[in-house]
UniProtKB/TrEMBL annotation:
<keyword id="KW-0418">Kinase</keyword>
<keyword id="KW-0547">Nucleotide-binding</keyword>
<protein>
    <recommendedName>
        <fullName>adenylate kinase</fullName>
        <ecNumber>2.7.4.3</ecNumber>
    </recommendedName>
</protein>
<dbReference type="Pfam" id="PF05191">
    <property type="entry name" value="ADK_lid"/>
</dbReference>
<dbReference type="Pfam" id="PF00406">
    <property type="entry name" value="ADK"/>
</dbReference>
<dbReference type="InterPro" id="IPR006259">
    <property type="entry name" value="Adenyl_kin_sub"/>
</dbReference>
<dbReference type="InterPro" id="IPR027417">
    <property type="entry name" value="P-loop_NTPase"/>
</dbReference>
<dbReference type="InterPro" id="IPR007862">
    <property type="entry name" value="Adenylate_kinase_lid-dom"/>
</dbReference>
<dbReference type="GO" id="GO:0004017">
    <property type="term" value="F:AMP kinase activity"/>
</dbReference>
<dbReference type="InterPro" id="IPR000850">
    <property type="entry name" value="Adenylat/UMP-CMP_kin"/>
</dbReference>
<dbReference type="InterPro" id="IPR033690">
    <property type="entry name" value="Adenylat_kinase_CS"/>
</dbReference>
<keyword id="KW-0808">Transferase</keyword>
<feature type="domain" description="Adenylate kinase active site lid">
    <location>
        <begin position="153"/>
        <end position="188"/>
    </location>
</feature>
<comment type="function">
    <text>Catalyzes the reversible transfer of the terminal phosphate group between ATP and AMP. Plays an important role in cellular energy homeostasis and in adenine nucleotide metabolism.</text>
</comment>
<dbReference type="GO" id="GO:0005524">
    <property type="term" value="F:ATP binding"/>
</dbReference>
<comment type="similarity">
    <text>Belongs to the adenylate kinase family.</text>
</comment>
């Protein structure tokens, strides 16, 4: 690869990052929580601190929809309705994604697993490589709070960075602070679709929280060594 055109500051930053990451222990984390609970906001911070890759199934699916790949064409309608796409589909995406070099120190899963079968398939997939999940962080936010958070949310599609008209406005309305590119609102970030998304969360993802709590206790680990819950103020 020719690095002649890469600015020196960028190269130095990357070298510093790699040096810092050298001695970080491997970590495999899951962030659980309803839409708008803050998973996507916290992930980049955790990613930087622990030198992990950030795998958000929602972002990957939206990219597939935008690129009109066979996967995106399959997932589009389901996503717009606020329901969950098929387990095999998302497990396949994650299985491929964790192989990427930037995931070699571990990963943060954001928006996955969202059903008990997904959690079981993930455990199997990791066990084959002699790996396991180290931490599950649960973002516990009441439904009433989520409506305002989700309907005021604006996204920078390229990076997944999110803003909020009231709680975290960009410096210039409708524009990403870092790239100057336009922000967009997700098609499913409206009050009506949010109802279906929350229904799917309570019916299908709440059991995943219990899955990890039970599993931790079954493995004779102190519950808070793996599972941590955070409540919205
Ligand atoms: N693990 C998953 N299993 C099934 N469907 C998923 C999964 N992750 C994302 N999706 C689909 O993508 C949509 C958007 O997901 P995401 O960006 O994580 O949104 P949020 O957490 O804000 O609801 C979901 O409503 C669902 O249709």
């Amino acid at each position: 690869m020719d690095l002649t055109d890469v600015p020196v500051e960028q190269l130095m930053k990357e070298i510093e990052r790699r040096l810092e990451c050298q001695n970080k222990p491997e970590k495999r984390m899951i962030l659980l929580g309803p839409p708008g609970s803050g998973k996507g906001t916290q992930s980049p911070i955790i990613k930087k601190d622990h030198c992990l890759c950030h795998l958000a199934t929602g972002d990957m699916l939206r990219a597939a929809v935008a690129a009109k790949t066979p996967l995106g064409i399959k997932a589009k309608e389901t996503m717009e309705s606020g329901a969950l796409v098929g387990d095999d589909l998302v497990v396949g995406i994650i299985e491929e994604a964790v192989k990427k070099p930037e995931c070699k120190n571990g990963f943060i899963l954001d928006g996955f697993p969202r059903t008990v079968p997904q959690a079981q398939m993930l455990d199997k997939m990791l066990a084959k490589k002699g790996q396991a999940i180290d931490k599950v962080l649960n973002f516990d936010v009441p439904d009433e709070v989520l409506v305002e958070r989700v309907t005021g949310r604006w996204i920078h599609a390229g990076s997944g960075r999110s803003y909020h008209t009231k709680f975290a406005p960009p410096k210039v309305h409708g524009i990403d602070d870092l790239t100057g590119e336009p922000l967009m609102q997700r098609k499913d970030d409206n009050a009506e679709t949010l109802k279906s998304r929350l229904a799917a969360f309570h019916a299908q993802t709440t059991p995943v929280i219990n899955y990890y709590k039970d599993k931790t206790q079954h493995d004779f680990c102190p519950l808070d060594s793996v599972f941590r819950s955070f409540q919205a103020e």
